[in-house]
Amino acid sequence: MIRALSLLLAAVMLLPGVASVGTAPPDADIIAPYYIVVDAEDPSIVFYERDPDERCIPASTMKIMTCILTLELVQDLEETVEVTKQAAGMSERNSLMHVIAGETLTVRQLLYGLMLHSGNDAALLLANYIAVNVSDYCDLANAKAAELGMNDTHFLNASGAYRGGQYSTARDMAILTSYALKNDMFRTLIGTARYTIEANDVRKEPMELVNSNRLISDEPDSDCYSDICIGGKTGSTTVGGQCLVAVGQRDGAEVIAVLIGADDYTHRDANKRMPHVFQNAKLFMEYSLENDYALLSPDTLDYTYQKDVTVEGLAAPVAISAQFDEGVGLRLPRQKIDPLLADTSLLETETQVSADLSAAQAGDIVGTISCSYGGRTLFSGTLVADTSAVPAPTPSPTPLPSTPEPEPEPNSVFGIGNLSIGFLIFAGVSLALLGSLIVLTANYIRRTSGRRDR
User: Is 449 among the catalytic positions?
Assistant: First the structure.
């Protein structure tokens, strides 16, 4: 019986979709066959997934690699690139920025064309600019993928356009995006809803680029718009389906949702496509940030700080306490902060008193306070004096002790005043000797007189 139960349990654990993480939020209808939702700072923290290591076709989401390599290899984004006939002559079957042969564009402009319009023409120009040709670019991209631990990824071009033998996985694209988010310009690019390229000596009219990521470029009343999305990258191929990488942010926490291979061709206008994919990503971001993270704030941790500081020269210690702005705090994955939630004494507090407390008045800001956990600052505030400094009273001068006058000794019965006993003894002995001398002298005179009379 026990053996039968063990076999049954093992069989259940091997069923598809059973994993140590969730497959999706409750009642969610996720249409992509491959997806993963991870913490942006640490993509090893996975919240939801379905076949995240299945090799598939991520389409133009692979342009994230082209973007980050360009940002790392080009120091000045104002460097210029002349548009080649090859790039300008790409078939309309491609996703294009619509460059014009002979015009000169900056690397910055090409990057916006790459990430907003998902231009394959921009990808080709940038690959040739940073690596001479596409083949050398792919060597760079594959080396970078290996460095990042993207073990199931192989690049054959810079655009993500379908080619047999080019592949990646949902997990690898999450790892790549997490790495790219460390670059500030990458964040700026993916978070831009619209960008205008001005007319030049070849291009007679300005060109407005609209981000294909409807999570940020749609109107706020759209079902696809998300006020917590800070950017991402779309992709689409006939063979591989609809793809999306999206990044959501709330209270300092960031989550990456990668969806690959969805069948969501619902509109001929590319700017209206993929509504279900965008809505799925929106649900993932909002639900995960709300439920898989916990907000660490003075209120949620019931944290207060108060201290009495003793200052030399004051009559009493100065009481100081911490004050925090409303809404201050940081969200972190629950699995990272479970120990802190169980024991708030693990919170690390650093204070700095910057004012002279001997002159502090109640209500004065006298310093700063910072609270952190696991090396990350959770919230900071100010130290405020709760009581005013009260100087200690100045002591009155203490008079020197006076030497008391000696009290007179009582007179002796002979009327002798303040004579010492030693003196009296000396005087008595002297008088006795003098009396003896007088008697001896008188006797001597008497004997002498008697001899003469004879």
Answer: no
